[in-house]
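Issue 218. Parser rejects a valid record. Input:
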Amino acid sequence: MKKDTYFDNKVIWITGASSGIGLEMAIQLDLTGAKLILSSRNIEALNALKNKLSNPEKHFVCALDLEKSSEFEKITQSIIEKYSKIDILINNGGISQRANAMKTSLEIDRKIMEVNYFGNIALSKCVLPYMLQSGGGQIVVVSSIAGKFGFYLRSAYSASKHALHGFYESLAMEEFNNGIRVTMVCPAKINTPISVNAINEKGTKSGIMDNNQRKGMPVSTCVKKIVRAIKHQKQEVIIGGEGVFAIKLKAFIPSLFRILIRRQSAT
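Output the parser choked on:
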Protein backbone atom coordinates (compact mmCIF):
# COMPACT_ATOMS: atom_id res chain seq x y z
CA MET A 1 0.00 0.00 0.00
CA LYS A 2 1.30 3.42 -0.98
CA LYS A 3 2.19 5.60 2.01
CA ASP A 4 0.03 8.69 2.52
CA THR A 5 2.42 11.65 2.31
CA TYR A 6 -0.08 14.52 2.52
CA PHE A 7 1.20 15.77 5.90
CA ASP A 8 4.83 14.78 5.39
CA ASN A 9 7.10 17.67 6.43
CA LYS A 10 4.18 20.09 6.65
CA VAL A 11 4.61 22.59 9.49
CA ILE A 12 1.50 22.41 11.65
CA TRP A 13 0.83 24.70 14.62
CA ILE A 14 -1.58 23.24 17.20
CA THR A 15 -2.93 25.45 19.97
CA GLY A 16 -4.42 23.90 23.09
CA ALA A 17 -2.10 20.93 22.55
CA SER A 18 -1.67 19.99 26.20
CA SER A 19 -4.99 18.14 26.60
CA GLY A 20 -8.10 16.78 24.92
CA ILE A 21 -8.47 17.13 21.16
CA GLY A 22 -5.25 19.14 20.80
CA LEU A 23 -3.16 16.50 22.53
CA GLU A 24 -4.65 13.70 20.43
CA MET A 25 -4.11 15.78 17.28
CA ALA A 26 -0.42 15.94 18.16
CA ILE A 27 -0.24 12.19 18.73
CA GLN A 28 -1.90 11.32 15.43
CA LEU A 29 -0.18 13.97 13.29
CA ASP A 30 3.22 12.99 14.68
CA LEU A 31 2.83 9.69 12.87
CA THR A 32 2.23 11.39 9.51
CA GLY A 33 5.68 12.94 9.22
CA ALA A 34 4.51 16.47 10.04
CA LYS A 35 6.57 19.01 11.95
CA LEU A 36 4.50 20.18 14.92
CA ILE A 37 4.47 23.36 16.95
CA LEU A 38 2.81 22.50 20.25
CA SER A 39 1.28 25.43 22.11
CA SER A 40 -0.68 26.08 25.30
CA ARG A 41 -0.01 27.74 28.64
CA ASN A 42 1.11 24.44 30.21
CA ILE A 43 4.74 24.08 29.17
CA GLU A 44 5.39 21.07 31.41
CA ALA A 45 2.53 19.13 29.82
CA LEU A 46 3.70 20.12 26.32
CA ASN A 47 7.26 18.97 26.98
CA ALA A 48 5.98 15.69 28.38
CA LEU A 49 3.84 15.25 25.27
CA LYS A 50 6.71 16.06 22.91
CA ASN A 51 8.99 13.54 24.59
CA LYS A 52 6.37 10.81 24.18
CA LEU A 53 5.94 11.38 20.46
CA SER A 54 7.64 9.16 17.89
CA ASN A 55 9.67 11.99 16.33
CA PRO A 56 10.28 14.52 19.14
CA GLU A 57 13.27 16.06 17.35
CA LYS A 58 10.96 17.35 14.59
CA HIS A 59 8.67 19.23 16.95
CA PHE A 60 8.80 22.51 18.86
CA VAL A 61 7.18 23.52 22.15
CA CYS A 62 5.98 27.11 22.25
CA ALA A 63 4.17 28.78 25.15
CA LEU A 64 1.00 30.62 24.16
CA ASP A 65 -1.66 32.40 26.20
CA LEU A 66 -4.69 33.26 24.07
CA GLU A 67 -5.49 36.21 26.33
CA LYS A 68 -2.18 37.86 25.43
CA SER A 69 -2.58 38.61 21.74
CA SER A 70 0.06 41.36 21.89
CA GLU A 71 2.65 38.56 22.09
CA PHE A 72 1.45 36.65 19.03
CA GLU A 73 3.50 38.42 16.37
CA LYS A 74 6.77 37.82 18.21
CA ILE A 75 5.88 34.15 18.77
CA THR A 76 4.88 33.71 15.13
CA GLN A 77 8.13 35.24 13.94
CA SER A 78 10.11 32.84 16.13
CA ILE A 79 8.34 29.91 14.46
CA ILE A 80 9.01 31.32 10.98
CA GLU A 81 12.70 31.74 11.88
CA LYS A 82 12.85 28.08 12.87
CA TYR A 83 10.71 26.46 10.13
CA SER A 84 10.49 29.20 7.42
CA LYS A 85 6.76 28.58 6.99
CA ILE A 86 3.49 27.52 8.62
CA ASP A 87 1.42 25.26 6.39
CA ILE A 88 -1.49 24.56 8.72
CA LEU A 89 -2.72 26.43 11.79
CA ILE A 90 -5.02 24.40 14.03
CA ASN A 91 -6.86 26.87 16.25
CA ASN A 92 -7.93 24.42 18.93
CA GLY A 93 -7.19 26.29 22.17
CA GLY A 94 -10.04 27.74 24.20
CA ILE A 95 -12.15 27.44 27.32
CA SER A 96 -15.65 26.12 27.88
CA GLN A 97 -18.30 27.26 30.33
CA ARG A 98 -20.69 25.73 32.84
CA ALA A 99 -22.61 28.67 34.22
CA ASN A 100 -26.10 30.13 34.17
CA ALA A 101 -26.20 33.27 32.00
CA MET A 102 -27.90 35.45 34.64
CA LYS A 103 -25.39 34.44 37.31
CA THR A 104 -22.36 35.08 35.12
CA SER A 105 -20.69 38.48 35.31
CA LEU A 106 -19.91 40.43 32.17
CA GLU A 107 -16.26 40.10 33.13
CA ILE A 108 -16.45 36.32 32.69
CA ASP A 109 -18.36 36.74 29.41
CA ARG A 110 -15.58 38.98 28.15
CA LYS A 111 -12.87 36.54 29.28
CA ILE A 112 -14.46 33.69 27.33
CA MET A 113 -14.85 35.87 24.25
CA GLU A 114 -11.26 37.11 24.55
CA VAL A 115 -9.85 33.58 24.62
CA ASN A 116 -12.20 31.77 22.24
CA TYR A 117 -12.81 34.51 19.68
CA PHE A 118 -10.36 37.40 19.81
CA GLY A 119 -7.36 35.23 20.71
CA ASN A 120 -8.29 32.82 17.95
CA ILE A 121 -8.68 35.35 15.16
CA ALA A 122 -5.69 37.40 16.35
CA LEU A 123 -3.43 34.39 15.91
CA SER A 124 -4.84 33.70 12.44
CA LYS A 125 -4.18 37.32 11.47
CA CYS A 126 -0.54 36.92 12.52
CA VAL A 127 -0.08 33.66 10.62
CA LEU A 128 -2.03 34.58 7.48
CA PRO A 129 0.57 36.94 5.92
CA TYR A 130 3.22 34.20 6.09
CA MET A 131 0.84 31.70 4.50
CA LEU A 132 0.16 34.15 1.70
CA GLN A 133 3.89 34.64 1.13
CA SER A 134 4.21 30.87 0.77
CA GLY A 135 1.41 30.71 -1.77
CA GLY A 136 -1.32 29.43 0.54
CA GLY A 137 -2.14 27.47 3.65
CA GLN A 138 -4.92 26.05 5.76
CA ILE A 139 -6.57 27.33 8.92
CA VAL A 140 -8.43 24.73 10.96
CA VAL A 141 -10.83 26.07 13.57
CA VAL A 142 -12.08 23.73 16.27
CA SER A 143 -15.47 25.21 16.98
CA SER A 144 -18.28 23.17 18.58
CA ILE A 145 -21.81 21.99 18.04
CA ALA A 146 -22.51 24.95 20.37
CA GLY A 147 -21.44 27.15 17.46
CA LYS A 148 -24.60 26.01 15.67
CA PHE A 149 -27.12 26.49 18.48
CA GLY A 150 -27.16 27.67 22.08
CA PHE A 151 -27.38 25.29 25.01
CA TYR A 152 -27.75 25.27 28.78
CA LEU A 153 -24.89 26.76 30.85
CA ARG A 154 -22.92 27.77 27.75
CA SER A 155 -24.20 31.25 26.83
CA ALA A 156 -20.83 33.00 26.40
CA TYR A 157 -19.13 29.86 25.09
CA SER A 158 -21.82 29.37 22.46
CA ALA A 159 -21.66 33.06 21.54
CA SER A 160 -17.89 32.86 21.04
CA LYS A 161 -18.23 29.82 18.78
CA HIS A 162 -21.03 31.44 16.74
CA ALA A 163 -18.73 34.44 16.25
CA LEU A 164 -15.96 32.22 14.90
CA HIS A 165 -18.26 30.87 12.20
CA GLY A 166 -19.15 34.35 11.00
CA PHE A 167 -15.54 35.50 10.92
CA TYR A 168 -14.07 32.47 9.19
CA GLU A 169 -16.85 32.09 6.63
CA SER A 170 -16.02 35.64 5.54
CA LEU A 171 -12.26 35.04 5.62
CA ALA A 172 -12.60 31.83 3.60
CA MET A 173 -14.39 33.71 0.81
CA GLU A 174 -11.99 36.64 0.83
CA GLU A 175 -8.81 34.54 0.69
CA PHE A 176 -9.97 31.57 -1.41
CA ASN A 177 -8.32 32.81 -4.60
CA ASN A 178 -5.11 33.41 -2.65
CA GLY A 179 -4.77 29.74 -1.78
CA ILE A 180 -6.10 29.91 1.76
CA ARG A 181 -8.46 27.14 2.88
CA VAL A 182 -10.51 27.18 6.08
CA THR A 183 -11.88 24.07 7.78
CA MET A 184 -14.47 24.53 10.53
CA VAL A 185 -14.70 21.58 12.94
CA CYS A 186 -17.82 21.17 15.09
CA PRO A 187 -17.50 18.34 17.62
CA ALA A 188 -20.56 17.28 19.59
CA LYS A 189 -20.18 15.02 22.64
CA ILE A 190 -16.53 13.94 22.82
CA ASN A 191 -14.80 12.23 25.74
CA THR A 192 -12.31 14.92 26.74
CA PRO A 193 -11.69 16.96 29.96
CA ILE A 194 -13.40 20.02 28.43
CA SER A 195 -16.13 20.09 31.10
CA VAL A 196 -13.60 19.59 33.92
CA ASN A 197 -11.64 22.63 32.71
CA ALA A 198 -14.75 24.72 31.95
CA ILE A 199 -15.17 27.83 34.05
CA ASN A 200 -18.18 28.64 36.20
CA GLU A 201 -19.84 31.97 36.96
CA LYS A 202 -16.96 32.84 39.34
CA GLY A 203 -14.34 32.19 36.70
CA THR A 204 -12.95 29.08 38.41
CA LYS A 205 -12.75 25.56 36.97
CA SER A 206 -15.87 23.47 37.37
CA GLY A 207 -13.76 20.40 38.14
CA ILE A 208 -16.62 18.10 37.16
CA MET A 209 -16.74 15.66 34.26
CA ASP A 210 -20.10 15.95 32.48
CA ASN A 211 -22.01 12.75 31.91
CA ASN A 212 -22.34 13.85 28.27
CA GLN A 213 -18.55 13.97 27.96
CA ARG A 214 -18.01 10.71 29.82
CA LYS A 215 -20.33 8.89 27.40
CA GLY A 216 -19.09 10.79 24.37
CA MET A 217 -17.19 9.64 21.30
CA PRO A 218 -13.60 8.57 22.06
CA VAL A 219 -11.25 11.44 21.36
CA SER A 220 -9.08 9.25 19.12
CA THR A 221 -12.08 8.58 16.86
CA CYS A 222 -12.96 12.28 16.79
CA VAL A 223 -9.42 13.28 15.81
CA LYS A 224 -9.23 10.69 13.03
CA LYS A 225 -12.26 12.39 11.51
CA ILE A 226 -10.67 15.82 11.95
CA VAL A 227 -7.41 14.71 10.31
CA ARG A 228 -9.41 13.29 7.39
CA ALA A 229 -11.32 16.57 7.04
CA ILE A 230 -8.06 18.56 7.04
CA LYS A 231 -6.54 16.33 4.39
CA HIS A 232 -9.58 16.75 2.14
CA GLN A 233 -9.79 20.48 2.94
CA LYS A 234 -13.43 20.23 3.92
CA GLN A 235 -15.06 23.56 4.63
CA GLU A 236 -16.97 22.19 7.61
CA VAL A 237 -17.27 18.89 9.44
CA ILE A 238 -19.78 17.96 12.15
CA ILE A 239 -18.44 15.19 14.38
CA GLY A 240 -20.93 13.08 16.32
CA GLY A 241 -24.15 11.58 15.00
CA GLU A 242 -26.36 13.40 17.50
CA GLY A 243 -24.87 16.69 16.40
CA VAL A 244 -25.59 16.04 12.73
CA PHE A 245 -29.17 15.08 13.58
CA ALA A 246 -29.69 18.17 15.75
CA ILE A 247 -28.43 20.56 13.06
CA LYS A 248 -30.65 18.99 10.40
CA LEU A 249 -33.63 19.04 12.73
CA LYS A 250 -33.09 22.72 13.53
CA ALA A 251 -32.86 23.53 9.83
CA PHE A 252 -35.93 21.61 8.68
CA ILE A 253 -38.23 21.33 11.75
CA PRO A 254 -37.14 24.13 14.10
CA SER A 255 -40.24 23.93 16.30
CA LEU A 256 -39.56 20.26 17.10
CA PHE A 257 -35.87 20.99 17.58
CA ARG A 258 -36.67 23.58 20.28
CA ILE A 259 -38.90 21.12 22.13
CA LEU A 260 -36.34 18.32 22.06
CA ILE A 261 -33.29 20.43 22.87
CA ARG A 262 -34.95 21.74 26.05
CA ARG A 263 -35.33 18.15 27.22
CA GLN A 264 -31.60 17.43 26.97
CA SER A 265 -29.47 17.19 30.07
CA ALA A 266 -27.33 20.30 30.60
CA THR A 267 -24.38 18.15 31.62
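Fixed in the parser; the record now loads. The chain has ten helices and nine strands.
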